[in-house]
Amino acid sequence: MKSEISSIFPTPIYFSKLDRKLSTKELLFVEKNKNLFFKNEGNLTSLDNYVLNKKEFKDLKKEIDLRIKDYFNKIIMTSNNVTPYITQSWLNYTETNQYHHKHAHPNSLVSGVFYINCNEKFDKINFYKKNNYKTIKLETKEWNLWNSESWWFSVKTGNIILFPSHLTHAVETKQGDNTRTSLAFNVFVKGSVGNNRELTELYL
User: Fold this and answer.
1) What is the distance between the alpha carbons of residues 24 and 59, in angstroms, rounded to a whole number?
2) Torsions phi, psi for 203 (to 5 deg)
3) Closest Cα partner for 121 from 42, 71, 177?
4) Which residues contact 175 (CB under 8 A, 6 or more apart)?
5) Confidence band, pLDDT 50/70/90 cuts, at residue 169
6) Percent of the chain with pLDDT over 70
7) Is there a contact between 112 and 73 (Cβ–Cβ < 8 Å)?
8) What is the DSSP string of the chain?
């Protein structure tokens, strides 16, 4: 039967890639922070949670800022006079048999991950539908974008992913013998949001 299926109100997952390898200075900074950590639920997170403000990551921050601007230009497309900026940023280290618990990012509009060390064969990021309640639950014979309660993407070293901060995500138990290393960050905006005439104006 001939038919057509449209998808409305989709959730954007933005993919880009760093066009260079990290410098020796940047890699040494990543390694140094591996020894200055706290135990997160399932893996390790750097004690420094403003790593993109450090001089070692000055060039990397500029390149990530370009992707954030691109996300806002292509996806949000606001007419408000706002400037997106990175709030907190931190490093995650996940060893074999570790994981990163299911979570979202409050007090943020957009969140992102830059992958510093990945095993393309095993490393993924999982996303979860916000409301999984079903009045009637039918058994599924084949998963697709409409009937799935979760979805995953393989990740590679150098990938940059941006997504709405409310989107729940996680890393399943790590396979492979590399240390999965990533830099996570949150994004908010400065400026005027809303509309004066509609009484929704807010200065940030």
Assistant:
1) 13
2) -100, 130
3) 177
4) 96, 119, 122
5) very high
6) 100
7) no
8) --------SPPP-EEEE-SSPPPHHHHHHHHHHHTSEEE-SSSEEES-SBGGGSGGGHHHHHHHHHHHHHHIIIII---S-EEEEEEEEEEEEE-TT--EEEE--SS-SEEEEEEEE--TTT-EEEEE-S----SS----SS--TTT-SEEEEE--TTEEEEEETTSEEEEPSP-SSS-EEEEEEEEEEEEEES-TTTT--EE-
Q: How far apart are the first and last CA of the chain?
A: 53
Tokens of 149: 């309660």
Euclidean distance between CA atoms 162 and 164, whole angstroms: 7
131 pLDDT more than 90 = no
Q: Look at the chain and count its residues.
A: 204
Answer yes or no: are the C-beta atoms of 165 and 108 closer than 8 Å: yes
Half-sphere exposure of 198 (CA within 13 A, CB side): 6
pTM: 0.94
Q: What's the pLDDT tens digit per position in 56-103?
A: 999 999 999 999 999 999 999 999 999 999 999 999 999 999 999 999
Neighbours of 2 (CB within 10 A): 3
- The two tokens of residue 140 are 């599924």
